[in-house]
Amino acid sequence: MAAITMTSTKTPAIVTGVATATRFVGHFLAALVGVALLGRDLDH
């Protein structure tokens, strides 16, 4: 815990940015997959 506390000066901002980017990409990919599946259902 001591090492994490000492090195967490800039880490939280980076972790938050990565988490936000990952969440955004996850939702984006989920939307693409949903549209692709709906498109397939409509085509067939």
Task: Draw up the topology in text.
Layout: H1 2-7, H2 11-43
Secondary-structure content class: mainly alpha
Distance between the ends: 56 Å
Shape: rod-shaped
Order of SSEs:
HH
Whole-number total of structural domains:
1
Strand content: under 5%
The chain-level mean pLDDT equals 80
* Total beta strand runs: 0
Largest sheet: none
Radius of gyration: 19 Å
What helical percentage do the residues reach? Answer: over 70%
Q: Give start-end ranges of low-pLDDT stretches.
A: none
Q: DSSP helix count? A: 2
Describe this structure in words.
The chain has 44 residues and is mostly helical. It has one domain. The chain is built from 2 helices and no strands.
Short overview:
By secondary structure, this protein is mainly alpha-helical. It has one domain (13-43). The chain has two helices and no strands.
